[in-house]
Amino acid sequence: MRLIGSAAVAGVLLVVGASCGSGSSDSGTQSTVASAVTESTDAVTTAPVSTEATTTAPASTAPATTEAPATTEAPAPADPLALAPAPIPSARQKPAEGEGEWKAVFSLDGADVIWTTSVHPVEGQSKVRATAAVFDQNRLIAALFNGTEVPGKKGFTNGSKVSKALAPSLVASFNGGFEFRHMKGGYVTEGRKLKGLRKGDATLGVTTEGLLVLGVYGDDITDDGSWVSLRQNLPPIVLDGEVSVGRYKGIYWGDNFGGVTVTYRSAICRIADGRLMYVAMGAVDITPMARGLVAMGCEMAMQLDINGHWPNFVWYRNLGETTRKGVVIDSRMNGQQRVLTGWKKDFIALFDPASVDRARLA
Known about the structure:
By secondary structure, the chain is mainly beta. Helices cover 5% and strands 27% of the residues.
């Protein structure tokens, strides 16, 4: 694949804020614009009937003509990115009702932008449960925020919390990656190189337009100096729709206390239609997790943080209001308000492009 920088990625950015299809949001908030419709009240005047004698012309002997029937144009097809993803099959013989089926939880301008589901995707490990959120990154503005401990530095525009000025536009947020001491990958943001980037590592990038991009550094992402943020963790665990964990030797994929590798893990991946999917799965080791991600439709995947309360995906009610109420997508998660009050580790925040004050973001 050719190397690209954020300027090249910007060429695929869709126009945000457009209504690209109808969709219902069960609990989310919609941004709407009301338009007034005015009916005409002008009187209609009927011409007076003439009383003068008229001469009737002889009937025509020309053959009658038949008008072509009126045609009705077919409605434009709905934007597939405004539709729910395909259901995910369960590895269980008797899946629960609704398992693997997507539910829209957030919409903007009449188009759904976030869907969630829960499923048991790992063959042979029917107790492993995954909770996922698919979002259309083309209709959202993304930003990497910097925690008090990871990266632990000061002076960032995007600090450890979403400010009160940005809170009304907040749509969703999710966790970043490992602490620096547990990863070999790099971390570059707001013009500061806090850890050197590694060729071949999975990379989550934010362009100057606020588009969130997932790729492999040195393959389909390269640091040309124009990215706002580039966050690495480890090598990709899924590549080209296949488990890739075994390609990388000597990689520390993470464990829980006491060296237990079967734990609660999170990842972000790209699905076939280009949208991104966040997944929290557990308790599971790295290779079964990668198999589960492939079963869920991931074409390329990057592991994020693991263990306990670190995995976290939240969407927020009351769009447009200063006080926001976070909703976690998995009962194993907590910290619904943590990005609004300040957090230890880095995280990605997603905003409504129609209302967010871009000048307050890096």
